[in-house]
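Sequence in, structure out. Go.
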Amino acid sequence: MLEKCRNAKERWGGVSDIIDQWLEQRQQLIRTLFSLSDCEIGKPLNEQLTLFCDLLMDYLSSGHFEVYEQLLLEGSEFDDGSVDKVQGLFPRIQPTTNAALDFNDRYGAFDSPTLREIRDFAEELSNMCETLEDRFELEDELIEVLHNAHRPVADEA
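Output:
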């Protein structure tokens, strides 16, 4: 997952500062997610989990309220049909947003977990990894469609 993230940054990192920052947030989110698997139950896990949930909410917010908006604005300015091509991606991204929000609601304050909560957490963390991987692929597709549609124009400038 981290390697895919690096490749995305290499391919699209120059599109804008907002996308650069967003892809860096993604890398930090992934690193923190992987660090959760090394934590033991107790204070270190609680601290890492709180950090992960905070980063997750920041990443989601940046995507929905900055990056997607900027990409759609860019696409509409070029008026080349690229916006129509990506409109089908947003309904596919939304379930990943809902899953991330649910995860944050459940585990954002993971103090004194029961044995059942610990068992559920391991499974839900695994599910969150898969959800984020799906989301990153959809977001990469969003960036690729809009960026590739406009790259020839940008190269001529």
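Check: The chain has one domain: 1-150. The CA atoms of residues 90 and 138 lie 9 Å apart.
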